[in-house]
């Protein structure tokens, strides 16, 4: 596969690009993460979201530990060529490592960040059968 | 106003946080930009989106040049406290400096990024009456 489309992206000095994952059906923003050149290429090829974990400094195949894979329907690039947007189907309905649907579960209300989304599954249960962190 | 909620955010080394602007009604992702501590504080206080322009290294009141202000309905914080999400009403229906509704107007199709959104207004016209860049 030609990879000219990868060269059009303005990668950070660390070789990354921010990626927003949005539920393709409801439009809900589920998470924000970073992608390396290799992870975006694999995302396009496999149609499953693959990120770069900055904390672990390695490729992060979303769902490898939790089972909560993200099936990618479409990928968009912004006007500055430095952010990508994924339209995804979220396996298990849980994107966040806290067991919530979305990572953006805190809302600014009355001068503080207040949790407005329920925990759908206990993280201990999500990661119980895995030795991998996510 | 107490600003403890600002201290909860994990700012980058440059003192910034990524911000995603989403249409509050349709759920469409309109743009991605960065905010400084002052710009997020002003956003909350004025209920209008205020960013930090990395290229110009200054506060950027969205719409100051284009008239395309973003009225902020809600602000969310993610699980890692390092990304904010704005639910906005986009004045003029145009968020992108190219004159399109959204900055994410290019879609990966057949091995390339293809423009899939129309230009709603000529940028020359948008910025004609202003001496400011945006």
Please sum up the structure shown.
Chain A is mainly β and 134 residues long. Chain A has a single domain, classed as Roll (Ubiquitin-like (UB roll)). Helix content of chain A is 13%, strand content 35%.
Give a verbal description of the structure:
2 copies of one chain form a homodimer. Chain A is built from 3 helices and 8 strands. Chain A is mainly β and 134 residues long. The first copy, chain A, has one domain: Phosphoribosyl-AMP cyclohydrolase (Ubiquitin-like (UB roll), Roll), CATH 3.10.20. In chain A, the strands form 3 sheets. In chain A, strands 2-1-6-5 form a 4-stranded mixed β-sheet, covered by helices on one side. A two-stranded antiparallel sheet of chain A has the order 3-4. In chain A, a hairpin with a 2-residue loop joins strand 7 and strand 8. Chain A is globular, with a radius of gyration of 15 Å. The model of chain A has no long low-confidence stretch (mean pLDDT 95). Chains A and B meet through strand 1, strand 2, strand 5 and strand 7 of A and strand 1, strand 2, strand 5 and strand 7 of B. Strand 7 of chain A pairs antiparallel with strand 5 of chain B.
């Amino acid at each position: 596969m030609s990879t000219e489309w990868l060269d059009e992206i303005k990668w950070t000095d660390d070789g990354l690009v921010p990626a927003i994952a949005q539920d393709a059906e409801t439009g809900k923003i589920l998470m924000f993460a970073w992608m390396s050149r290799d992870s975006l290429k694999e995302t396009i090829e496999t149609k499953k979201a693959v990120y770069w974990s900055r904390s672990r400094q390695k490729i992060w195949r979303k769902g490898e530990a939790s089972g909560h894979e993200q099936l990618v329907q479409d990928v968009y690039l912004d006007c500055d060529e430095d952010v990508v947007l994924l339209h995804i189907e979220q396996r298990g309905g849980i994107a966040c490592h806290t067991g919530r649907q979305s990572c953006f579960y805190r809302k600014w209300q009355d001068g503080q960040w207040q949790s407005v989304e329920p925990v759908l599954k206990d993280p201990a249960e999500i990661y119980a059968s895995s030795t991998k962190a996510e």
